[in-house]
Task: structure prediction
Amino acid sequence: MRKNRGFTLVELLVVIAIIALLIGLLLPALAKARQSARSTKDSSQINQTHKGMLIYANSDKKNRLPIPGIYYPNWYQNSGIEYAGRFGSERQEINTTKNLYSMCIAGEYFKPNILIGTTEVNENIEVDDDYDYSSIQPSQQRYWDTGFSANISEDGEGSWDDECTQNWDGNSHPETCNTSYAHMVIHGKSVSNKANLRRSKNWVNYASSECVVLCTRGTRGGDETHPENYVKSPTLGLHGSPDRWAGYFCFGDNHMEYGESFYGANYVCLDSGGNLPDNVFWCDFGDGSNSAQCASGDIKAQWEGDSFCGISKSVSEAGGSSLRFDDKN
Result:
């Protein structure tokens, strides 16, 4: 009778080596597939965030996306008497990122978790799991939880809006940021008290497909030439190759585009006879030479605005917006 025998040591080692080789070949492919899936889901979350804002705009008389300073305005005054609940002028200084997103969460247009990207790498960013819905009391002019934070740069949270909402008894968390996504700046008046056509044309539910309204956040000022601001930015690790920025852009008509450049949109420069590449993270058609080049009659380029996105920490009473970036790794 033949005697059965098991694997020899050499045969066992060969099998183990083959398995290890297969794992080594498959793991990078699986990791890339997982990263691709997370990246696609991140794009979907940006898109869903904009959809929630579009739903809000459908019930707004002027079809505007959420604007905190209009939702909670300076109440109408007459002969020194304030009439709370009667709409007056826009409260410019509260049009910040934290108030914008917190206002939407309070209205249940989306949940706090949708604002955290699935590819997030910045440890300063976390979900606002304890969003305080009980603090929302419209009868007392309290419209959202002021504890929601968008302090991406980890510096002091203090800004103009704190003076307006400090009586809401909200808790601030300046050491954290509860969102991953940048948005088009939404301050109202601009230079020389002219209307901000960037907002009136694009922060509405009938906007065109040319202006970016929400997106993956970028490096400081969308500048690739400054090593400190670009190379060390955690945003390079969100999508695509880890050594250069890549991200998603959501346009006014809600369509999404993937890009590996900060020039995700074009600016219609009438005097040049066509479109000019537009850096989404910099107001590159402001007060510089391009301003004169792209002026059209009384509408100067700096009043009309281009695609200009970021995370806004504060807005001055005059309407200027101060953006923040996570430019240190």
Remarks:
- The beta strands are 76-78, 81-83, 181-184, 212-216, 247-251, 256-259, 265-269, 274-278, 309-315, 321-324.
